[in-house]
Design goal:
It is a single chain. By secondary structure, the chain is α/β, with parallel strands linked by helices. The chain has a single domain, classed as TIM Barrel. About 40% of the residues lie in helices and about 20% in strands. The protein has 9 helices and 8 strands. It has helices at about 5-10, 30-35, 50-55, 75-80, 90-105, 125-135, 160-180, 200-205, 215; strands at about 20-25, 40-45, 65, 85-90, 110-115, 145-150, 190, 210. The chain is globular, with a radius of gyration of 17 Å. Bound molecules: pyridoxal-5'-phosphate (PLP). Pyridoxal-5'-phosphate (PLP) binds near residues 46, 67, 153, 212 and 215.
Amino acid sequence: MSITTNIQSIRTHIPGHVRLVCVSKFNPNESIEEAYASGERIFGESKVQELCGKYETLPKDISWHFIGHLQSNKIKFIVPFVSLIHGVDSYKLLTEINKQAEKQGKIVNCLLQVHIANEETKFGFSPDELLATLALPDWKILENVQICGLMGMATFTDNREQIRSEFKILKTLFEKVKSDFFSSSDSFTELSMGMSDDFLIAIEEGSTLVRVGSSIFGSRNY
Ligand SMILES: *Cc1c(COP(=O)(O)O)cnc(C)c1O
């Protein structure tokens, strides 16, 4: 199957209120160009250096999302152009993004990553940590970051009901955070959940941004 046909078939399942992030990590520019030619404009990358290289060489109307684990010393390289950082998994990282954004005169859109999976290895705030962090006034002075919503990854499992229940937990948390902390803001709107294997469930459970890689570009060699 070609990238174009993969996108066409995925697109038939994505309703208008949900945006597709084409996860192009580890794939060459030619693959991104093919997806771009079929109309895609949002691409997700997980390595800073790779993202910067692609940003330099590919069309400037691409909206680049950073979906990986961001190291503090690399924030400055993506601040000039990144549209959304999905995986902000600590308050410290949020303050560091804010600092770099302030230096560069930018406001950077961020999603707070929540740990919903039943696995040790996935990054993110626990739901309790997230609520405790937002209950403190500290984050409100960070004027150069815009918290646009939440992001999460379900457990890597064949158990569809488990995946669904994890997405439900994230959606419930999203609604609570929105009403408790962002009721006076229009910007807290995004719920990033769902990947190649589970994006249909994620959409049913309220996702607004699905991050799809291998179903579009084929399996990665890593
Ligand atoms: C790689 C990655 C994806 C895409 O995964 P696929 O299973 O290839 O669709 C989505 N989200 C994050 C955070 C990733 O690292």
